[in-house]
Amino acid sequence: MSSPIATFYTDAVLFDMDGTLTDSIAAVEAAWGKVATDIGQDPAYVIAATHGKRAVDNLSQFKPHIKPHEMDDEVTAFEESILFFADAYHKHGPGSQLNSPADSTVTTPALSTPSSSAPSSRAQSRASSFGNALAAPSLNTIRRPSFLSRVSGLLGMSAVSEHEESVFDDFVSEEKNQEMGEQEPARTVKDTLHAWQVEASAVDRSVRILPGVKRMISSIPEGRYAVATSGAKTYAYGCMTRVGITPPRITITADDKRLKAGKPAPDPFLLAAKELGFDASNCVVFEDSPSGIRAGVASGATVVAVCTSHERSKIENCGAHYVVDNMEKVHCEPVATNAEYGGVQLKFTIFA
């Protein structure tokens, strides 16, 4: 490792997730690209405008017709689509013929979170408008398999039986009737969905862990780090588990009902620090996006920006105290101290 250029001490660490711990940018951009296509906007514009922000804020901006009581389902459906893009290559595409990586079989664990963070439940929910295809409605509190799961299954089948084809067509017709109030030929919908999912499986958009992350996490004592992400639970937990990261006890996601605002507001980092039992001004934030860096700065924390998703020129003027290529350029060492700091502080060294 090169020569050290700076040293500082903190009580705890607040990590952003995607672009900082994990890299799912290809899957995220594919999902937002599909949204852009669906609404007739330039994918490059939509992708750039949505980076580092909560899906709920982005969907409110680009799909303003979504009603407030529908938004939780829309966010879940969108985040399911990210994970589908991330998994499609190894589940249904060329990668399914190869030896899949060990983490490809990891599934998102059941989420047990504080009631203040849990989405509200409904006896009945409508089908998501995201692609008219990513979330299935409930009927009399019994939830059927999601539409995403049903159409995904087609890619794993060499042939579709007459019975399954009939069930599929009936399902498509029902979804379209509920969503649009009129019936579109089921075959057309099926072909359209099959086409974009075949495209999704053609490119490897797997979630990956970023350089230096495993070493960094393993060097921090338990209870001294948290994740504060613009992703909601489906996406956040799905990404971390896919690369072997156990979501920490304090994981603040975008759908946490205690949050009044998402990044670039400091609320996610302030809440994460509070839940850890520390003041944000005595924490270090690791971030990759301009909005996240600004959120960290606004929280009063020391901010380390990593150039893992943006060129240095795009983030070096956002207020970060340090800008590094990736987490391999940062070393963390717990050091004994007096009781004022809980007996331990974290010594960080920045390398050139």
Describe this structure in words.
This protein has 352 residues and is an alpha/beta fold. It is built from 12 helices and 13 strands. It has helices spanning 25-39, 43-50, 55-62, 71-92, 147-155, 162-180, 186-201, 213-218, 233-242, 267-276, 290-299, 312-315; strands at 4-10, 12-15, 22-23, 138-139, 142-143, 208-209, 225-228, 251-252, 283-287, 302-306, 322-324, 330-336, 344-351. The strands form 4 sheets. It has a 6-stranded parallel β-sheet with strand order 8-7-2-9-10-11, with helices on one face. Strands 1-13-12 form a 3-stranded antiparallel β-sheet, with no helix packed on it. Strand 7 (225-228), helix 9 and strand 8 form a beta-alpha-beta unit. The longest helix is centred in the first third of the chain and has 22 residues, at 71-92. The radius of gyration is 21 Å and the shape is globular. The termini are close together. The relative contact order is 0.19.
What is the topological layout?
Layout: E1 4-10, E2 12-15, E3 22-23, H1 25-39, H2 43-50, H3 55-62, H4 71-92, E4 138-139, E5 142-143, H5 147-155, H6 162-180, H7 186-201, E6 208-209, H8 213-218, E7 225-228, H9 233-242, E8 251-252, H10 267-276, E9 283-287, H11 290-299, E10 302-306, H12 312-315, E11 322-324, E12 330-336, E13 344-351
Parallel strand pairs: 2-7, 2-9, 7-8, 9-10, 10-11
Antiparallel strand pairs: 1-13, 3-6, 4-5, 12-13
